[in-house]
Input
Amino acid sequence: MWGAFWTRVRFPSAPPMKTDRTVMVLFLYNSYREKSGFGEINMFKVKEFEKDDIDSVIAFERELRKQEPDTYYWEPDPTYRKLLEQSFEDDRFRNAISFIAVQDDKVIGRIDASLISSRSDASCFSAYMDWICVLKSERHHKVAHALLSALRKRCKELGVGVLIALMANNNEAQSFYKSVENASMHDTGIWIDIA
Output
């Protein structure tokens, strides 16, 4: 599906002007990427993570660890691949919602969530965002916002009214969370190990 996104772009190489130029950018799957330079726009798309994407997702996982070795401590090994493949057939994952951001056939970001089915309100009114991550080299180009937008749209289609997320405790992540439209911070998360 094609759509339009209006944005104001400042062209750094152009002579100073009193106002920015307004350009219309056509984009695919409601996503785009602006890159500094003379009006250069690189496209990416956000799509559902499907079983056929596993090789690309594992390549993303490896690149993520290469770019941030002090943040991600486990390697996507053959066991992870097998579990990931099985997740597409395993009924326990029926409430999983996953999207990937792809640029030039390369995954550059990923978001994963799950519907929360609870008898406390006898509905599936909530969802839990388990993970959102963008390659460090691709951050600050609206990739995370596009992933979150796709997730919010899917949640709305499923009748979800609230998306709950634990926040990563680093400045870059905190800055992103604070920029999310129609969001507020509540409560404190607790992790309970099931022994």
Summary: The chain has two domains: 1-42, 44-179.
